[in-house]
Amino acid sequence: MQLLSSSIGRKIVMAITGLLMILFVVVHLIGNTTIFGWISGGINAYAHHLHAFPPLVWAFRAFMLAAVSIHIWYGIQLTIENRGGRPQPYAVKATQKATFASENMIWTGLLLLCFIIYHLLHFTMKVVPGMALVPDAEGAINVFTMVVSSFQNFFVAFIYVAAMVTLFLHLSHGIQSFFQTMGWSTDRTLPVYVKAGTLVALVLFLGYVAVPLSIFAGILKG
Fold first, then answer.
1. How do residues 155-206 score in pLDDT, each as one tens digit?
2. Where are the domains of the chain?
3. pLDDT tens digit string along 90-149?
4. Backbone angles phi, psi at 137, to 5 degrees
5. DSSP assignment, residue 87?
6. pTM, 2 dp
7. Would you call 189 exposed, middle or buried from its count of C-beta atoms within 10 A (0-12, 13-18, 19+)?
């Protein structure tokens, strides 16, 4: 495809797949917060409704896997190209001061990939030891008990909090990069996008770490 033959085209594909992942992160956070009981039945009811249609769930997983794979593949390609040519990654303007987040996007991205694999092994495949798998009368796993028993372990809670720090760094730069890549950023609007991206990343960070920290601190108990 002609779009993918140029670095600009690949950056646009990266921006679009990145947006899809941000939307997923937002929706996933909303689902996670049901553990605090703001819907009837809490996270167990949420998990039950989420997996009510297995073919749809697996189709969505396959779609997101494709988006993540494309994002990572072109991210690696563009990083190699940028370091072999000009030093600015992700179409960052030369006038914009580089930050720790912007200079380490490839590494935070790869760390997040490692975490995604761990997360799938943990709560999807359920092969990480140390969590209570208690079935209900219908044979379904009690998700609330599973999550609470997991995050009562310091090392598991630490892994998740550290991963969310990495997510914050990646999104704090990635969100404003989306607007630059799509050509929607100017010298006047760029500072707004930078602040907005940092704010969104911070809100997501606080939302995600609230679950493991609340459990580890004993606020949420099984």
1. 999 999 999 999 999 999 999 999 999 999 999 999 999 999 999 999 999 9
2. 7-83+100-217
3. 444 444 578 999 999 999 999 999 999 999 999 999 999 989 999 977 788 999 999 999
4. -65, -25
5. S
6. 0.91
7. middle
Least Cα distance to 161 among 213, 214, 216 occurs for 213
CB 123 within 8 A of CB 31: no
CA distance 182 to 118: 32
141 strand-pairing partners = 135
Topology of domain 7-83+100-217, CATH: 3 helical TM bundles of succinate and fumarate reductases (1.20.1300)
- Which candidate, 25, 28, 37, places its Cα nearest to that of 219? 37
How many whole angstroms separate alpha carbon 90 and alpha carbon 188?
A: 19
* C-alpha span between 13 and 20 (Å, rounded): 11
